[in-house]
Each structure stands twice: as structure tokens, then as C-alpha cells.
Amino acid sequence: MNGYVIAVDAMGGDNAPRAIIEGCRRAVRKFPDVSILLCGPKAMILPMLGQEERIEILEAPDVIGMHEHPMLAVRKKTESSLVKAMLAVREGRAGAVVSAGSTGAILAGGILRVGRIPGIERPALAPIIPGANKPFLLIDCGANVDCQAKYLLQFGLMGSVYMQSVMGVQVPQVGLCNIGTEAEKGDRLTKEAYGLFSEQKIFSFAGNAEVRDVPTGDFDVVVCDGFVGNVLLKTIEGTAKLMMGNLRTYVRSSLRTKIGALLLKPALYRLKADLDYKRHGGAPLLGVNGAVVKAHGSSDGEAIENAIRQARLMLEGRVVEKIREGLKEDEEHVL
Amino acid sequence: MNGYVIAVDAMGGDNAPRAIIEGCRRAVRKFPDVSILLCGPKAMILPMLGQEERIEILEAPDVIGMHEHPMLAVRKKTESSLVKAMLAVREGRAGAVVSAGSTGAILAGGILRVGRIPGIERPALAPIIPGANKPFLLIDCGANVDCQAKYLLQFGLMGSVYMQSVMGVQVPQVGLCNIGTEAEKGDRLTKEAYGLFSEQKIFSFAGNAEVRDVPTGDFDVVVCDGFVGNVLLKTIEGTAKLMMGNLRTYVRSSLRTKIGALLLKPALYRLKADLDYKRHGGAPLLGVNGAVVKAHGSSDGEAIENAIRQARLMLEGRVVEKIREGLKEDEEHVL
Question: Distances from the Cα of A79 to the Cαs of A41, A290, B128, B302, B310, in angstroms?
Fold first, then answer.
């Protein structure tokens, strides 16, 4: 196979395999330099796929379900579509993986089967979050709890490389998620991390990112422990849901407000879409030895196409190589 | 002085002393069983206050500014309105303190000058947060970082006592803020806390409160480390601000949406007010040897009246005594 070879997990996500196959078909038509290794049960996929140039099926009879124990499933189900896709990267048959499967299984598969970049302590999940002025990368958002300061430092490097190489931000501004702007603010972890961030020279540290200012701020990358990142992400989601729900209730309270809502529909629709971070593509798993993109579980064909585009950009932008180079640049240092 | 004696910091907050004086005046008129010890410079306050039954001025010539170092200021400025109010509680002249001063100074003053309840490791700041179905108490929201599991357990007790005694919830449901619902989820701290919470018998533990479900859930108390609580609180604030800002932009985009917004005004107004947790009274500082209420810095007379009402409810509900009793009940145990 030629060009950028992307292994796709045909069986991950709520709409698999139909939406996944549709997404692959759209992607190869749009990107002439992309070839796809579609991992799943051939007998099931082939009739739906038919003949398609630059899509090859890699037989994987087994499936990892959404509620299986991630580590156990990845270890045991060596013939699953997810594990086969991950192994294709390890064996050099593909450069990237796209999966809409369970977050836990993708993490476990990325770490155990693709493998870490040598020197990286903890791979991290890094969704793009919509902000008021521009989107930002939140790293880590749940893959790693009980982080050490050094992990956060590596998150800063990885996030910076991604925003530069994939999102085209020339000098990404990296903020350290904290409960105050001053250097001495925070808990043990953030105070220690602040020291490390200030010393290093491989990414642009823009200081503490106070949480209140994160959605409206100028940070391109926001670094935090995975527990904190998950709280941040889920609170955005929960608050947006609460507000839209309340608005719906208030609108129903009178004819006047009902008519108002009807007229305001385009604006309300945009508002709802705003905070739906799932629309901003999949979340890259950074720090593993290949471009791994976790698409949302409810992805349709378009979302899968977008995730493949994203994986392609990670390959084109040489994200893995640049993280490796970043680690080397800093050899004498703390990273 | 008779009834519930509440010491009020006349000089704390953006609108001091005028709004504070107005709030005190409103409170004594509304609550015949409340007497106020108004702490501040007599020469400044008396002309604005005039004669008012059940309000007595306690001379305090000094003021702690919003940007002073809290610990240092509380230690040094023994004649400040805040410290004088706190000392009035320590000396038994008042049962409660209300201040709209800086959070840091109120924390420091509460801990150093009012003093902790014997056995309580860390007093905690616990604002009431509006939810979809009912408000809940978030404890801690920033007073304590690097918490130990035992502190969280005490937060659970204190939060439960407050919701029962002040908010009238018969059996408050206490949730442990976490990144998943299962017992084995979370970081070291929450896993250990989960064990302690499950063992104790002095409050009703309702399991892990996954962040996504916190605003729409059925928890009366949500317990977390202060770093996490602060992230949660500020993310709600930041997200609400972002959404209202975006809506404003979208509304302006056409005549249709402008008219829609005009008709929808009552609903939008309610929406904006919804997530303004400052409207839900001040935040109690729980775990100190008196009823301390931190009113918002921008409080007007009505907000101060509400904070005084809240302090009165804490005295009437015997919050401090009940926390003490809770600790005793659990003597043989971990608390």
C-alpha cells in the first residue's frame, strides 16, 4: 500500500461497521495519498464494502465490546479488530490507527500494542476543546491520574507539537491548568510542574492557566493531571447540558418565549453545537509510537472521515518523530 | 446583646461600608432575634448608620485590602475589621461572622482567629451550587489542596450537617466527586476516600458522583479536594460566561435573531441568573468554631442581608455543635 497507510478499526463505535466503512470510502475518495487497512471480520465487511481502491481488509474475527475490561480485553483478544489495527502499526504495515471503540481499550491498545515512544512516561489523551477565541488542546483528559510533574512537562511538549504540526499554530502557547495565576499557587504537583515548565526551552510556556479563563483565554495547550482534565471536560459538558435544558424549560413557559425561540433557532443551534467538542474531530492519543486517533463512539461516516483526515495530518506533520526529536533536544534536561 | 449575635465585617467587599450597613439594617428589621456587632472605624460608620436598635459598633480602625497576603495581614492587622469580627466569636461575644472580604483573609482569619473545631483537620469553604433539580453543596472549593482521604471524610460530615441543619434536607446524599461511578475508579485519594466513606455510619454516602452527572444529579453534598472543587466551580462559571457571550454574538447576526432574543428576554434572563452561584447566598466556612459566612465581594445590601440570614440559620441549626457531635459519635472510628 502507498502513501499514508491508516489502520481503521471497523468494529468500534455505536454505528460500526456501517459508519466506519462509509467513512473509509469517503476518505480514500477525498485523499488520494491515503490507503486504508480496514480491520474486522472479512465475511461481514466485504459485502458492505464491495471493491474500493486503496482499502484492504485485514481479517480480524473478534470484537472488543464497550464494557469489557480494557487491559484484559486487549491482552486476551489478540484477534480483535482493535488489537489487529494497533499491531499493524507496531509491525510497520500502517502509520496510524483510527478507532471509535471504548476509550479504555484504545488507551490500553495504544500503550500495550503500539507501544510508547521511548522516553515518554505516560501517553495522554488530548481532545480539542472549543474556546471563545480559538480551540485549545486539553492534555491529559483522563488517561493518567496521580501524575508526576515530569509527566506534565512531557504533556506540554506533546501538546505543543500537535498544535504546531496538525493545527498550524506557529508558536503554541502552553498553559498549566491551575487555581490561580501566580507562580506560587496550586497544589504540590502544579507548583513543582511550574518550576520545570519555567526551566525548559522546547515549548513556549505561557504561565498558569486559571480555570475561569481557560475557555476565553489565549492558550493553545492546557496541561493538567488526567483527573483534573476529566473534571474540566465533564464539567463543560454537564454545564452546557444543564443550560440548554433549562433554556428549553423557560422557553416553554409562555407563547412569547416560544415565538422568540423559534426566531432565535439558528443562534440556539449554533450555541448547542459550540460546546460539542466531539465535532472538533477525534482525540489523539499522544506519546505512543504511531498516530492514534480516538473517534467518538457515536461517530457517523463524516466523523470517521474527519478522524482519518486528522490521522493523515498527524502523519504528514510527523507528530511522532517531532515528539521524539523534542525529547532528544532536551537530553541534558529534565524532560 | 440578645438572641443570635452576628459580628459583621463593615469594611469587606467592593461596596463597603455602605452596602454592609444597609444589609445590617435590613437584617435587624427582618429578624427580631438577631443582634449585630458591626466591626469597623466608628467615625466612618456612625454617620451612615445613625441610631439602629440591635446594631452595636465595635471599633476597628484598620482594614485588610483585597490583595494583601492573607496570613500576613491577619497576623499583623490585629485592629482590622475582619480580625476584630473573628475575635468577637473567639471571645464569645458573637456566635457568627459575616464578611464580604477576600476569601484568603476570611480563611486565614477563620482558622487563626476563630479557631478550628477540635478534631477537624481542615476547615473547608463550601458554596451552594445551583443544579438542574436542586442545589448542592460543593466542599471543598479551594481552601485545601493536597487533601488526605481523612479530610474528605470530614468534609462529608460537615457538608451533611450543613445541608440538614440549614437547608432542611432530611437525609443529605453525599457523593464523592470522581471520574467514574465504579468504586475502583479515580486517583489514589478518591480510591482511599471511597473506602473510608463506605465504612462510616454518620452520613449517607451515595457513592461516586461522576462529574458529568453532578449538575443534573441527586447529590446534596459533593465532596472533593479543594483543587478539584475549584476547577469544577470555575469551569461552571467559565462555561456559562462563554455560552452567554457566544449567544450574544449569534443574536446580533440578523434581524430575525435580534427580534427573537427580544421576545426571549425573560427566559434568557433566567438562564443567566441560573448559574450565578453568588445569588445562592454566601459560602460557609465549615470546621471552624463559629458560624463563618463568606459573602461575595460584590454583595449589595440584599446579599449582605441574605448572608446574615444564613449565619442566623447556622446558629439556629447548631451547625458547629452538630459537627462536634458527629466527630464524637464516630470516636472509635476513622473520622
Answer: 10, 20, 51, 67, 62
The answer to whether B144 and B151 have CB atoms below 8 angstroms apart is: yes
Q: Which residues of A touch B238 (CB under 8 A)?
A: 211-216
Alpha helices in B136-225 (DSSP H): 149-165, 188-199
Backbone angles phi, psi at A79, to 5 degrees: -100, 15
Are the beta carbons of B137 and B220 closer than 8 angstroms? yes
What are A136's three cell numbers? 485549545
In degrees and rounded to multiples of 5, residue A163 shows phi and psi of -65, -35
pLDDT digits (tens, 9 = 90+) for B24-37: 999 999 999 999 99
| Interface probe with B: pick from A185, A234, A277, most Cβ of B within 10 Å | A234
DSSP state letters, A215-247: TTS--SEEE--HHHHHHHHHHHHHHHHHHHHHH
Residue-wise DSSP of A60-81? --B---TTS-HHHHHHH-TTBH
Distance CA A231, CA A141 (A): 8
Element (H, E) at B35: strand B34-40
Instruction: Decide if A310 contacts A281 (C-beta within 8 A).
Output: yes
Taking CA–CA distances from A142, the nearest residue in chain B reads B179
3-state secondary structure of A119: coil
Which residues in chain B are closer than 8 Å to A240, comparing Cβ atoms? Answer: 239, 243
The pTM of the full predicted model, rounded to 2 decimals, is 0.92
Q: Where are the alpha helices (DSSP H) in chain A?
A: 18-30, 42-49, 70-76, 81-90, 103-109, 149-165, 188-199, 226-251, 255-263, 265-274, 301-316, 319-329
d(CA B133, CA A62): 43
d(CA B22, CA B127): 23
Q: What cell does B130 get?
A: 445551583
Condensed to tens digits (0 to 9), the pLDDT of residues A212-267 reads 888 888 899 999 999 999 999 999 888 888 888 888 888 888 999 999 899 988 88
Q: What is the edge-to-edge ordering of all strands in the sheet holding B34-40?
A: B55-59, B34-40, B4-9, B96-99, B291-294, B283-286, B124-125
Helix B301-316 to helix B18-30 angle, to the nearest 10 degrees?
50
CA dihedral in degrees (A258, A263, A267, A272; nearest 10)? 30
Q: Does the beta-carbon distance from B245 to A216 stay under 8 Å?
A: yes
> In B, which residues are within 8 Å of A259 by CB distance?
260, 263
